[in-house]
Structure formats: structure tokens, C-alpha cells
Amino acid sequence: MSKAEDEYSFMDEVAQYEKENPINFDFIGREMLKKAERSVRSNAEKYRYKNQLRNITHNEIRDHVAKKMKKLFSSTLVEDPNV
């Protein structure tokens, strides 16, 4: 058997396998699009979240920390009587 016949035999086997096990390219395409959409949405949410964090003012952070002092640092806020 020559090399060309061996390659041809292999290609026949591949063709036969494809006939017996058809590939649903529409399904694969839809699944790839779903995965891509999830990835894009996830990245967009992360970007939006980071931008929201950047827009927080110093006063908002100070007020939040003051309200959550006990929980954040296991201590309490004591008012300065001189203020």
C-alpha cells in the first residue's frame, strides 16, 4: 500500500466519522456567542464598578467609616468635646 493510499484511507475514515457524528455548528456558534456575551458583560460590570469606586468623594468615605467604625475596627467613635 502506498503512502497516498494510506492518507486516502485515513481521510475516508474521517469522512465516515463526520457522517455518523454530525457536528451542529449552529449550536456551537450559539454557545460561543453566549460565552462571549457573558465575558463582555462581566468585564463591563467590573469596569463600571471600578469607575463607581473612583467617583466616591473623600467626605463620603469619611462618613461611611465613621458610621461603620465599630464594625470596621472593632472600636467606637468618641466625639472630641473641643469640637
Largest sheet, described in full? none
Low-confidence stretches: none
* Nearest-integer average pLDDT: 77
Terminal CA distance reads 99 Å
Oligomer: single chain
Helix-strand string? HHHH
Shape: rod-shaped
SS-derived structural category: mainly alpha
Radius of gyration: 31 Å
Residue share in helix: over 70%
H/I helix tally: 4
User: What fraction strand?
Assistant: under 5%
Q: What is the strand tally?
A: 0
Overview of the molecule:
There is one protein chain. By secondary structure, the chain is mostly helical. The chain has helices at 3-20, 25-54, 58-67, 69-73. The longest helix has 30 residues, at 25-54. The radius of gyration is 31 Å and the shape is rod-shaped.
Q: Would you summarize the structure shown here?
A:
Helix content is 76%, strand content 0%. By secondary structure, the protein is mainly α.
Key phrases:
single chain; 83 residues; mainly alpha; 76% helix; rod-shaped
